[in-house]
């Protein structure tokens, strides 16, 4: 390898190098993309190589130092500085990194472009950047179709990087329950089942509600599900029976996001999972694969939070949720309505 830098020119959002770059940079280091008689580098690749004096870049006859090139690149390509931080970090960890259908594609350690498939597609975000749900759903679909994994690289204000993996998750439990019987009363924002025998049967049979004094207190979503399945009758405080439609109407007036929570709760229960409130963990639900007995409750496996189709993620909030879930040995899952079907999006910490 020559000690002299390979010379090229900045043209639009690419740096073009001569033919000698192909062997030294592309064949040996998998930098750039061969074009007619030369090598084409992305701006982040060029900045990385320029900082290491591997290349020299000219613009309109003048040679650019690293600072000048970096400042021009940030003006040409939105988010360049974040992508550069991530590209540099991954390269210095020993990964081969190339521009891809997302921001980058990353090859497994020991792998190399042309010899092994890429393992990850990478999306880069600033911690301050709001992320619409669709900006995660589409890359997840692409990575799944291409049999890759999606890495989210979040760059904070000090240029430290936190890596996450985002993927669709299938949830399935092993809690086959058939419980029922009794009539409960809708109070202000919860439902009370008064009969001790019915209370014990429903609680022990499906881990519904919170027992106390021979009675069973049920949440609105639990009650709606049991009413919908014909496993519980509900009356108001005057003793007037409530239809499912009337119960849902009243629940909406108490709980703004009741419909979404109800949809997700129903789906989780239909997947044979046990669902309880996740309030203490900052999410809608904590979810168990199975609960053998109310006297010996295991750790829940998942924290599930319901989000609408137009949800926008704020990354500091996501960071807190994922870190909390990890600290209590659970998986953080976001549930969304996809055309009447519930889809589950898992986001977890990743250590490249």
Entry summary:
The protein has 352 residues and is an alpha+beta fold. The chain is built from 10 helices and 23 strands. The protein is elongated and about 90 Å long.
Structure write-up:
It is elongated and about 90 Å long. The mean pLDDT is 94. The chain has a domain at 1-76: tRNA intron endonuclease, N-terminal domain (MutS, DNA mismatch repair protein, domain I). A ten-stranded mixed β-sheet has the order 7-8-9-11-12-23-22-20-19-18, with helices on both faces. It has a six-stranded mixed β-sheet with strand order 3-4-2-1-5-6. A five-stranded mixed β-sheet has the order 15-16-14-13-17. It has helices at 20-29, 43-51, 66-76, 80-92, 134-145, 196-206, 220-228, 244-254, 258-270, 315-327; strands spanning 6-11, 14-18, 33-35, 38-42, 55-59, 62-64, 97-99, 104-106, 120-126, 131-132, 149-155, 161-168, 183-186, 191-193, 210-212, 215-218, 233-235, 274-277, 285-288, 302-307, 312-313, 331-338, 341-349. It is of the alpha+beta class. A hairpin with a 7-residue loop joins strand 18 (274-277) and strand 19 (285-288).
Overall spatial form: elongated
The CATH architecture assignment of the domain at 1-76 turns out to be 3-Layer(aba) Sandwich
List unreliable stretches of 5+ residues: none
Strand order of the largest sheet: 7-8-9-11-12-23-22-20-19-18
GO molecular function: tRNA-intron lyase activity
Protein name: tRNA-splicing endonuclease
Family: Belongs to the tRNA-intron endonuclease family. Archaeal long subfamily.
Catalytic activity: pretRNA = a 3'-half-tRNA molecule with a 5'-OH end + a 5'-half-tRNA molecule with a 2',3'-cyclic phosphate end + an intron with a 2',3'-cyclic phosphate and a 5'-hydroxyl terminus
